[in-house]
Design a protein that fits this description.
The protein has 5 helices and 4 strands, in the order βαββαβααα. With 147 residues, it is an alpha+beta fold.
């Protein structure tokens, strides 16, 4: 018998110190690079969005992978890309990330949410958004790690 799976993850992570480093002029190129990196890891990029200080992704995941390996590779590769292609040598991602499982029935809703990040963040910060996401998912956290 083959292995069958339907694993979808909503992942979000921010720039170091939540600095507004991701400029609109190259934001799409970064998102494209992240998507290409996911594809290179044999994972399905189903949506990427974000604003100046963070990124959201919807990822079709495989049980042969680990989330920590995926995140390490994404952050490492994309930081190197920003350093070389954009010339921003100080650019870095914040340690850690938030990841949530997404059911098939909620996938299109999450994809739309990710696509509307710029509109969404006219009203609230990434920290406010993250707290709401953590609370909604029942994730316990220490507030000192949210800055």
């Amino acid at each position: 018998m083959s292995t069958f799976h339907s694993l979808h993850l909503h992942v979000t992570f921010s720039t170091k110190y939540r600095k507004k480093w991701i400029h609109r002029s190259w934001e799409k190129r970064l998102h494209d690079y992240l998507g290409g990196t996911l594809n290179g890891l044999n994972l399905a990029c189903q949506g990427i969005g974000g604003v100046e200080d963070h990124v959201h992704m919807l990822v079709g995941f495989k049980p042969s992978r680990t989330i920590s390996d995926m995140m390490r590779e994404l952050k490492k590769a994309s930081s190197a890309w920003v350093h070389s292609e954009i010339g921003m040598k100080d650019f870095a991602w914040q340690e850690g990330y938030a990841v949530f499982s997404v059911s098939v029935t909620e996938r299109s809703k999450v994809k739309g949410y990710i696509a509307r990040q710029r509109e969404h963040h006219r009203r609230r910060t990434f920290q406010e958004e993250l707290i709401e996401m953590l609370d909604r998912a029942g994730v316990q956290y220490d507030p000192k790690y949210l800055t």
